[in-house]
Specification:
The protein is globular, with a radius of gyration of 23 Å. The strands form seven sheets. Strands 13, 14, 15, 16, 17, 18, 26, 27 and 30 form a nine-stranded mixed β-sheet that branches. Strands 1, 6, 7, 8, 9, 10, 11 and 12 form an eight-stranded mixed β-sheet that branches. Strands 4-5-20-25-19 form a five-stranded mixed β-sheet, with helices on both faces. 28% of the residues lie in helices and 23% in strands. Bound molecules: guanosine-5'-triphosphate, sulfopyruvate and manganese (II) ion.
């Protein structure tokens, strides 16, 4: 008798017709074999899936070049297939589940002919965690196997957890023919099921990540009284040695990984890393909010990563590691066989190829590394890893940050007056788009709680769920909004950012422990300019004023856009959100 898992795999094999099936055990030996297959046997567009990099300078590191049309998440091809459109809400693409399946079945039909089908059993969350979920992904490319092994706890533990039950999250993935016309990422939340075809890229293809741990998990959280969020988890150690745990939501490519691994610019303060992209938040036995990171790796933005901006990530990438390190779509120095990217420590070499393998030099008009080039690396390699990382119950959260990328309007930091006001603050967030998704870059769009592309159900219900969570939590975390990206008239960042962001976190700690006051404004509490520690950085009081300024004119425009966005939810939007909107509106007049 076969188990439900074996039966499901068999059915997927009948549909996709692979040459062979390989069940992955997550072992080191298998990881070496997978990389070797990627180098020698599999190809994308006629090119190998992996290139071995200089192993002396970058131990266990490999370069992957994706299909040139497959370099970022494709939000317009991503669907949340609830039985009814209203449950998906106005911010998601929706298709009727049976219609979606019929359409995709045709694309999956025979798509693995001549290829190996890999079966990946994995856990999201520590296997001993009451919040962890057992999952299985099927894929047909070594890149996804190698990546999933870095990002998730892959192997026999998951199979043991599933046993003879039907209780596992299913993901079916094939790169298909990489044609964007035949690319779809389809979610079936009622079945804990994801079907993805036509892309090998991160969020489209590593189905445990955005597809399950955010889109489907957010809907599970809605039904089961927890939250799945696009958030960093960190511990902030103060000079007395106390550690305060916080989470921070920021849109894609807006600073999460950098915040998660920050090398503090203030003496006595230190950041401990627990997660850089996804947090699952549950109410603990003591009534407080606890966070776990369901992942065990980083899939991080490469450009701009250097010993200056993120020294801990450079150490992580260069370290000796039980897991391989993958670089996707960086440039390559042919003389040294090293990866290279814009913003790295050293200037480019004389003999370079760009992310597509084409000759490149400093006079080229296009970037050498793709703006959304990525590294995939184990979190266990990071020097700042928190000792609580594998704690199955997670860490208690004292503050939640919503971060945005805004050239103007939004101050460096604001504190919400209350949980309810904080939910509105998160809901009204807008941010300028980045290269993390296929879209025009630098366009302002509303991105509530940094979850616009990742909330698996109607965001009006999501806001209601957030409001409700605040009433269930004892001592709900304080809520803050930050913007590291405000610019001056010359287009220069006003704030030094990166390691100096600790100065803003310090203000938050001082607020949490009631050590410091603040200035009440229409949008929330902002620091007095002198309350942000600026010793040791060169920042004038004039700059500080600009960073904290609330410009009435800009806010008139902002509030219009907020209203337009909230209107799209119609009568489903919780009245509390409108009340907070009205308060803000009145105060700005
Ligand atoms: P995803 O992995 O897409 O979810 O992105 P992320 O939120 O983890 O973003 P990440 O930390 O990788 O940062 C993205 C880009 O923002 C990089 O190019 C960074 O160099 C830049 N960045 C991060 N933090 C700061 C900061 O404090 N100031 C400035 N000016 N840039 C920053
Ligand atoms: C993001 O876009 O927010 C990422 C990268 O973290 S991806 O895994 O592709 O979603
Ligand atoms: Mn992300």
């Amino acid at each position: 008798m076969s188990t439900p898992l074996e039966k499901w795999v068999q059915e997927q094999a009948e549909l996709t017709q692979p040459k062979s099936i390989h069940w992955c055990d997550g072992s080191e030996e298998e990881a070496r074999w997978i990389i070797k297959r990627g180098i020698e046997e599999e190809n994308i567009n006629g090119n190998p899936v992996f290139y071995r990099l200089n192993q002396d300078l970058w131990p266990n590191a490999y370069l992957h070049r994706s299909h040139p049309t497959d370099v970022s998440r494709t939000e317009h091809l991503t669907y949340v297939c609830h039985p009814d459109k209203e449950t998906a809400g106005p911010t998601n693409n929706w298709m009727e589940p049976e219609k979606a399946k019929n359409m995709l079945r045709q694309l999956f039909n025979g798509c693995m002919k001549g290829r190996t089908m890999y079966v990946l059993p994995y856990m999201m969350g520590h296997p001993d965690s009451p919040f962890a979920k057992a999952c299985v992904q099927i894929t047909d490319i070594s890149y996804v196997v190698a990546s999933m092994r870095i990002m998730t706890r892959m192997g026999k533990k998951a199979i043991e957890k599933i046993g003879n039950s039907n209780n596992f999250v299913r993901g079916l993935h094939s790169v298909g023919d990489f044609n964007p016309e035949r690319r779809f990422i389809m979610h079936f939340p009622d079945e804990n099921l994801v079907w993805s075809i036509g892309s090998g890229y991160g969020g489209n293809a590593l189905l445990g990540k955005k597809c399950f741990s955010l889109r489907i998990a957010s809907y599970l959280g809605y039904k089961q009284a927890w939250l799945a969020e696009h958030m960093v988890i960190i511990g902030i150690q103060d000079p007395q040695g106390n550690i305060t745990y916080i989470t921070a939501a920021m849109p894609s490519a807006c600073g999460k990984t950098n915040l998660a691994m920050m090398e503090s610019g203030l003496e006595g303060y230190k950041i401990w890393t627990l997660g850089d992209d996804i947090a699952w938040l549950n109410i603990g036995p003591d009534g407080r909010l606890y966070a776990i990171n369901p992942e065990i790796g980083f899939f991080g933005v490469v450009p701009g990563t250097s010993s200056k901006t993120n020294p801990n990530m450079i150490k992580t990438l260069k370290g000796r590691n039980f897991y391989p390190t993958l670089f996707t779509n960086t440039a390559l120095n042919l003389d040294t066989n090293e990866p290279w990217w814009e913003g790295y420590d050293t200037p480019c070499g004389n003999n370079m190829v760009d992310w597509q393998g084409k000759p490149w030099d400093i006079s080229s008009k296009t970037p050498a590394a793709h703006p959304n080039s990525r590294f995939t690396v184990s979190i266990y390699n990071t020097p700042t890893l928190s000792k609580e990382f594998d704690n199955p119950y997670g860490v208690p959260i004292s503050a939640i940050i919503f971060g945005v990328r805004r050239t103007n309007c939004i101050p460096l930091v604001t504190e919400a007056f209350s949980w309810k006001h904080g939910v509105f603050m998160g809901a009204r967030c807008g941010s300028e788009t980045t290269a993390a998704a296929e879209q025009k870059v630098g366009v302002l769009r509303r991105d509530p709680m940094a979850m616009l592309p990742f909330c698996g159900y109607n965001m009006a219900d999501y806001f209601r769920h957030w409001l409700l969570m605040g009433t269930r939590i004892k001592n709900p975390p304080r809520i803050f909004c930050v913007n590291w990206f405000r610019k001056d008239e010359n287009g220069q960042f006003l704030w030094p950012g990166f390691g100096e962001n600790i100065r803003v976190l310090k203000w938050m700690l001082d607020r949490i422990s009631n050590r410091i006051g603040g200035k009440e404004t229409p949008i929330g509490i902002v620091p007095m300019p002198q309350d942000i520690e600026t010793s040791g950085i060169n920042i004038s009081s004039e700059k500080m004023e600009k960073l904290l300024n609330i410009n009435k004119q800009e806010w008139q425009q902002e509030i219009k856009e907020i209203k337009n966005f909230l209107d799209t939810f119609g009568t489903r939007l919780p009245p509390e959100i409108w009340q907070e909107y009205q308060k803000l509106y009145n105060q700005l007049q």
